[in-house]
Each structure stands twice: as structure tokens, then as C-alpha cells.
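>> received
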Amino acid sequence: MAITASHRVRRPHEAPHIPNTAGSVQRIECEKEARDVMNHLSDQPHLDKIRAALLAAMLQRAAFEGWTAAALQNAARETRTDPGAVELACPLGVIDLLRYWSRELDRDMLAMLEKADLSAMRVRERVTFAVRARIDAIGDENREAASRAAARLATPDALMAGKQLIWQSADAIWRALGDPSTDYNYYTKRAILSAVLGSTLMVWFEGDNERTDRFLDRRIENVMQFERFKGKVRQAKEKWPDPLAALSRIRYGTGKARPRRM
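>> returned
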């Protein structure tokens, strides 16, 4: 049988073969450095002007063309944006453009909250107002484009980005409302509000604003019932005896010194 290079047996006087990994390590380091540079450049404020122009063009197209690479290319041609500038402003294509849009919508929502007299509202009313403000920031004229955006963010390659964006919106709402929680409540509040915001948007996409308001009111009522239930559980837990302390007393007594026998 012929012996190929892959089958050749090393002779005793030959040095053992050591894979040359220097090139691989250097390539990995170069790729990481390139990604870091790209991320740094994509965060530059002047690129928001490019994103804003592309977004304005995409909002006119997305309702019919969807949030696709082809639609983004058409938007770039319409705005006379160089392909290199598009790549720099949106390395991940429409996903990055949707990130930018969501961030701008959160800013608009926060501006509405700053103008409102939140101090005169109860917690339930504040949360309801904030969710409505986030939806109003989209605008009825962009309803279909937003619906197509939600569909795009539900695809496997964008699913994580979609979850991050809805979480960031919920976090922005709670921070604006002065939520002081830092324990597990921090996560449960944002997770619940993310679900409320996401489900309410799905209803709003259908085009009935009054139905959306009724749906939101019911969801907020469910949230408040859950919060009241958690409060009752927390109060009950405070009254529960500590099982470890009880076992300790059984094993070692109450800790009081017993009188010595004379």
C-alpha cells in the first residue's frame, strides 16, 4: 500500500511535528482588532446622521418591501449614501438600523414622560402612560413599517436583538419612573413589562387604537394583581418561622444558661 504524506511514519532522528499556530493566533488577533475598530467607528455620533437619513427612507419603503437588504440598498441609493458609509453606519444591515430606530423611539418616549406630571399619577397610571407614550412615539403613519420590523426581529438571526430592544425599552420606562429595585425585582419588573409592551404592540399593529387601550389596561391590571400577590407572599414569609433556627433550638436548646446543681 502506498504511503501518503498523511500516513508517513516519523523516523527516530526526525523532530516531532509541532503545528504552527502562530499564524492562526495572529489572524484571530487581527480579526478581533478589526471588529473592535469597526465597533468603535460605528459608535461615532456623526454616523447617526447617516442612520437618520437611511431610516427616513426605509420607513417609506419598509411597509411594502420589508426590512430587507435590498430595501436598504434602495434607501442608500435614494439618499445618495455611499455603500461604504452604509457599511460603517450599519455593519449588521437593517438590524443595526432597527437598533437605531428603537433607541430614537425610546428617547421620544422619555421626552414625553419628562413633560408629563407623573407625580400626580399612581404607579399603575404611570406605567400605562409610559407604554402608550412608547407606542405613540412610533406614530400611526409608521404602524405597518413597525409591524414589518417586528416580523424581521422575530427571525432566528435577529431574535436576540429583538429581545434586547424590548428589554431596553422596558428598562428605560422603569428608570424614568424612578424604580429603585436592585434585587430580583429589578429583573421581574422588566421581564413583565417587556411582555406587556410586546403583546400590546401586537394588538396595536392590527390598527384599532381603542382596542389597544383596553388591552393595555387589562394587562396592567394583571401586573398590579401580580405585584399585590407578591407583596402578600413577602409579608407571609416574614411571619414564617425560620426552620434552621427551630432545629437549632431543638438540638442545642434556647441558649439560656441552666442553673448549676449544688
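>> Residues 1-10 have pLDDT under 50 and may be disordered.
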